[in-house]
Design a protein that fits this description.
Strand content: 5-15%
Main location: nucleus
Family: Belongs to the ORC4 family.
Radius of gyration: 32 Å
Distance between the termini: 50 Å
Number of helices: 24
CATH topology of the largest domain: Rossmann fold
Keywords: ATP-binding, DNA replication, DNA-binding, Nucleotide-binding, Nucleus
Number of domains: 3
Domain AAA+ ATPase: 116-273
Number of strands: 7
Subcellular location: Nucleus
CATH class of the largest domain: Alpha Beta
Oligomer: single chain
């Protein structure tokens, strides 16, 4: 089945090349016309220019199949799809959140059109589409006639605006109130706050521009001192002043428990929950839609062949297996976008379409064990110390250990095998042990005291047995006796 699909992909590429090939045949005439328009009189110069250009194009064509058009097309594809994957572009489709989207857009329209103040929390795990949902809703709202010129937006992030003073300055900047302030200098947080509130309170429901406040990482604003900013914004939303809507985005289900009583009493208690509840067939459909090129793509032939290749991939059994594994680990679209981004990076002028092999390699990169990869670069001595720690964990049931215990366990192995090759001095073994700590494969159980002896400081291994054994299987030129020691039972020791 997979070979049939790969043949299909090759046919798509061959068909694409055959359709753009006539352009190459017309190159001599086209270049001759260009040379004449440049006004070169010398026949030798004209002939040299034409033949040099044809030779250059032939190199591009022979070395990079489909190079004439795909040379530009592949970079356009990567630009469009990367923007879709990385920036929560509002030009795509929403998946599985139509009910929540309808609720949110109605709320925004009531504020923008009818001057009704509101507040709402959008709650969902990271990668569930909270930002994409609000971006889509704002895009639709701005397309309503007469709304885009008469509405203001303020975007705040709890990671950037770490206190109320910084947040107020950012609100002032985004509302363009610096021009009103002029050279006035605010001496305190209270003055800044009172000026902003006065500016918002001057209007009423009919004459003022509605303001949309979007607070990303809303739970971090709840940690600000006295929650002054949240209190005053929600207080405005409850009064007949400038119409505002406060939209909080958070991944914490217990967000209401973080709010003070006075803040909670002014919140509308509207909540929109996002949960990735779609099935695998829907996930497969999302895969196709996220990889497909839009109808407005400038290279129509390339776009058609690209979309045919995407359809072929979605029917490939090996691709379905990769997506099923990915789906079982995480349903969120952010992880799917990461998978597709890694596969997209393989697209070049000579490799203009994504293949099943690209997706399989991308899946391996996504599921790669970073700590296991670190083990591949360790010395044999360091590997032996990790195996000694593994055996200590098995014997003492995950209890902490110290260097002296590890060294004694290592010495048992050296004496039993009678190998001089593993007979290292104790300071050398200590250096290897410290290197493992620097790599964060082991960590101390408590902060190191100045007077404490390093040999007796309690440590914990940050690798489990499965990670160790998998890493040893891939370790280059691992000695046989070391591998046998790792797999040996406790009675052997």
């Amino acid at each position: 089945m997979s070979s049939r699909k790969s043949k299909s992909s090759n046919l798509i590429q061959a068909d694409y090349v055959s359709q753009v090939a006539p352009t190459v045949k017309n190159l001599p005439a086209m270049l001759e016309t260009c040379v004449q328009s440049l006004g070169w009189k010398d026949p030798l110069e004209k002939e040299l220019a034409v033949h040099s250009s044809i030779f250059a194009w032939e190199i591009l064509w022979t070395e990079k199949p489909g190079g004439l058009q795909s040379m530009g097309s592949h970079s356009q594809v990567q630009r469009i799809l990367r923007e879709r994957f990385c920036h929560q572009s509002p030009h795509g489709n929403l998946f599985g959140v139509q009910v929540q989207y309808k609720h949110l857009i109605e709320l925004l329209k009531r504020t923008a059109i009818h001057g009704e103040s509101n507040s709402v929390l959008i709650i969902g795990p990271r990668g569930s589409g909270k930002t994409m949902l609000i971006n889509h809703a704002l895009k639709e709202l701005m397309e309503v006639e007469g709304v885009s010129e008469n509405i203001l937006q303020v975007h705040l992030n709890g990671l950037l605006q770490i206190n109320d003073k910084i947040a107020l300055k950012e609100i002032t900047r985004q509302l363009n109130l610096e021009n009103v302030v002029g050279d006035k200098v605010f001496g305190s947080f209270a003055e800044n706050l009172s000026f902003l509130l006065e500016a918002l309170k001057k209007g009423d429901r009919t004459s003022s521009c509605p303001v949309i406040f979007i607070l990303d990482e809303f739970d971090l604003f709840a940690h600000h001192k006295n929650q002054t900013l949240l209190y005053n914004l929600l207080d405005i939303s409850q009064s007949a002043q400038t119409p505002v809507v406060i939209i909080g985005l958070t991944c914490r289900l217990d967000i209401l428990e973080l709010l003070e009583k006075r803040v909670k009493s002014r919140f509308s208690h509207r909540q929109i929950h996002l949960m990735n509840s779609f099935s695998f067939p829907q996930y497969l459909k999302i895969f196709k839609e996220q990889l497909s090129l839009p109808s407005i793509f400038p290279e129509k032939i390339f776009a058609e062949k690209w979309n045919e290749n995407v359809q072929s991939l979605s029917e490939d059994r090996s691709v379905k297996e990769v997506l099923q594994k990915h789906f079982n680990v995480s349903k969120n679209l952010r992880s799917l976008h990461m998978l597709l981004m890694l596969a997209l990076n393989r697209v070049t002028p000579s490799h203009p379409f994504i293949t099943a092999a690209d997706l399989m390699e991308a899946n391996q990169l996504c599921s790669m064990d970073s700590k296991g990869n670190i083990v591949h670069g360790l010395s044999v001595l360091e590997i032996c110390l990790i195996i000694a720690m593994k055996h200590l964990n098995d014997i003492y049931e995950e209890e902490p250990f110290n260097f002296q215990m590890v060294y004694n366990e290592f010495q048992k192995f050296v004496q039993r095998k009678a190998h001089s090759v593993y007979n290292f001095e104790k300071p050398v073994v200590m250096k290897a042990f410290e290197h493992l700590q620097q790599l964060e494969l082991i960590r101390p159980m408590e902060r190191t005291s100045v007077n404490a002896q390093r040999e007796y400081q309690l440590m914990k291994l940050l690798l489990d047995n499965t990670q160790i054994m998998n890493a040893l299987q891939k370790y280059p030129n691992c000695p046989t006796d070391v591998r046998q020691w790792a797999t040996s039972s406790l009675s052997w020791l």
